[in-house]
Amino acid sequence: MAVTAKELAQMCGVSRMTVHRALTDTGRINQQTKELILKKAKECGYRPDLLARGLVKGQTFYIGVVVLDVNNRYFSQLLSAIGMEARRRGYFVNITLHEENKEMEKEQLERLVDYHVDGVILSSVNQGEEYREFLQSLDTPIVTIGNKIADGIPFVSIQEKKAAREATEVILQKGYEKIVFVCPPLEQTETNTYVHQQRLEGFQEAVAEWNRKLDQEQSEVDTVIIDRNEGFVESTCEELYQTEKRTACFCTGDMFALDIMKYMEGQGRIAGRDYGIIGFDGIDMLNYVAPRLYTIYNPVEEVAKEAVKLLFRLMNGEAEGDNTVILNCQIQEGETL
């Protein structure tokens, strides 16, 4: 059984305050005494009582993280990066998954607050002023990532619309005459789809601008929007190979693109040769896929670090002003366009 701070003090013949100074590297203490205490603590397997320390400081040394799921590699990478950054700051992470259920998300947030987590990082499927008021009523620092809920809620994201617009321009410059845009259902849904809505708007702006600049002899680029629901892969693939026009597919997530590429390969059609395709996020598993998928690299580790950094500023009462962080992202070239 590990020793307590009191027992460690008795072993070293010093006061508990001296032990505290040695272990926390604070206050004035003789260097030899400090080295003795640290050596004895290591030998005896001393571990700090975080519960007791938390009661004194009013902290639990836990932050909560609420996200969709871990099936999408983006969220897996995000959680890993958040966990590493939190541990670097001496904190543990309590992870919960809302599975795109709005009420479950609220219940999870309330449960985390009941357990007195010191702060929460949230990827939400809720939105609007009423939900903003709910979050503020929890009286716990919260940072949102990805989907924007409302003004006034601390927010970390990337330049979604700009990235989608630039990616669409790349597709058009490569001579594609038709683009199939694949995304989650955006119409007639109460779920927060801010991320994918921004990507759609960027896509539409780029196509509209391209078509405005065409000569009278040139045909406008055709576009088709397909919701990612049951049967979306088959529907997308029909659009890709049942056309005389050179066609590309823009997917708002890499996983959508990989599903389409797998299906098309089964039909004997190869991305980059028979059709074009680009994804979004730059998930790590693309390193094992051939041909290499063109994608928009979403700096997930940087998003995680900025979210944790902002959350700790809020927890320490140091955050002022807008509390919005928007990061750049870039196109990652591949072999599929």
In DSSP terms (H or I, runs of 4 or more residues), the helix count works out at 12
Structural class: alpha/beta
Helix % is 40-55%
**Radius of gyration over all CA atoms, rounded:** 26 Å
CATH homologous superfamily (4th level) name of the largest domain: Response regulator
Characterize the main sheet.
6 strands, parallel
CATH class membership of the largest domain: Alpha Beta
Extract low-pLDDT stretches: none
CATH architecture of the largest domain: 3-Layer(aba) Sandwich
Q: What is the total number of structural domains? A: 3
Note the overall shape. elongated
Widest sheet, order of strands: 2-1-3-4-5-11
Provide the residue-averaged pLDDT: 88
User: What's the CATH topology name of the largest domain?
Assistant: Rossmann fold
State the order of secondary-structure elements, H for helix, E for strand. HHHHEHEHEHEEHEHEHEHEEHEE
Classify the oligomer: single chain
How many beta strands in the DSSP annotation? 12
